[in-house]
Design brief:
Layout: E1 3-6, E2 13-15, H1 22-34, E3 38-42, H2 48-59, E4 63-68, E5 71-75, E6 88-89, H3 94-104, E7 110-114, H4 125-133, E8 137-140, E9 149-152, E10 160-162, H5 168-178, E11 183-189, H6 196-203, E12 208-210, E13 219-225, E14 234-235, H7 240-252, E15 257-264, H8 271-278, E16 282-287, E17 296-302, E18 310-311, H9 316-319, H10 323-332, E19 336-339, H11 352-362, E20 366-370, E21 373-377, E22 386-388, H12 393-403, E23 410-413, H13 425-433
Parallel strand pairs: 2-15, 3-14, 6-7, 10-11, 18-19, 22-23
Antiparallel strand pairs: 1-23, 3-5, 4-5, 7-9, 8-9, 11-13, 12-13, 15-17, 16-17, 19-21, 20-21
Helix pairs in contact: 1-2, 1-6, 3-5, 4-5, 7-10, 7-12, 10-11, 10-12
The protein binds shikimate-3-phosphate.
Amino acid sequence: MKIFAVHSCGPIEAEIMIPGDKSMSHRSAMFAALAEGRSTITGFLESEDCLSTVNAMRSLGATIDHVTTGTFFVEGTGGNFTRPAVDVDCGNSGTTMRLLSGILAAQPFRSRLTGDASLSKRPMGRIIKPLSEMGARFIAEGGDGKPPLVVEGGNLRPISYQMPVASAQVKSAILLAGLFAEGETSVIEPAACRDHTERMLQEFGIHLELGEADSQGRRRIALTGPQKLKARDFAVPGDISSAAFWLVAASAKQGSVVTMPGVGLNPTRTGIISVLQRMGATISISPVDPNAAEPLGLIRVVGSQLQGTVIGGAEIPNVIDELPILAVAAALARGTTIIRDAKELRVKETDRIAAVAGNLRAMGANVTETEDGMVIEGGHPLHGARLQCFHDHRIAMAFAVAGLFADGETVIEGVECVATSYPTFGVTLETVLSR
Ligand code: S3P
């Protein structure tokens, strides 16, 4: 078992290179495999989750060659996939299983999707329901909508679907299935959630109708099928969800100056920056090409004293993956932070509300768990502790950062899981610790 052993450190002065965005890497491999022709993907995140997607697309008949770190040539199938000879192993990746289900729902064969222990506990009913309404057949072998999933695809009919949860994975699964259905498929999201599928499908030549958000933030996205993707080259920017760990570390440690070039700045993902700025952080952004399909730029953070805040409502989908590290920021801030409307955290790679609250308390923080979030009384000094990460990459990394502020040693056990989204996190942590 691998551990992170962390102690407190001085101000962080560094330029940190952030690896490719996980959400966009998954989509780049899937969309290039769906397209007609050859695409070159650069900046691809070679993490376990994204490589699960690459292997899945290979097992469906796409030719994907690894050229050099982060670069893949993909010979697309034009949407004519072949039946996978064996089960498709999605590993730890909910994105792989849910988006792929949308594609497989339309294929004229039966396939079986499996995952690790964590993925096998995650709810798939949210994609099974709409995709079944479109005409696909699913068996959730784990019972109660849980994996393994058997998908029997075929001719789909379009639907108009009002999503009960603001989930980009559900939205994407339906839109991907809609590419194969004759007529207009539409989804209404209850609050804006990451829009990489919309942006990247358009890049790959798909015509989409993007509605305006109403006063409650509800938005309609529609496409008329059938439509085929065209191959194209795509450069994946750095993952703001990975940058988030250093954003918090540098924001909360006075005297720090950290720059991170080439980070994705899609407005459906930059909530972490707005929340930290509201907490008093000094963060500036130099956009590279704000009009690119996926905007990116350089982020510069200067350390300061953070203050508590309230995080909730429509902001939650924008910071959903950053809430564990924001909770750590809250423990380091002066005053109270309330995180609410974040019940989705209970069905991530682990129950992130319980994991974060338990670990913060073990380090001496004052945290009250609520059904849909937590209340953190900041400013109590943190002390080192021996912590579990519950096979959850973001819990492991969030608490490695907490350890940089604690008195004594913090040990996080079972940190192999960081390889699912940020394989080089440990190397960067070592450089930060050695200063
Ligand atoms: C993702 C969507 C989010 C996010 C996950 C990646 C995506 O999940 O938490 O890490 O790439 O579409 P939900 O769709 O379940 O909110």
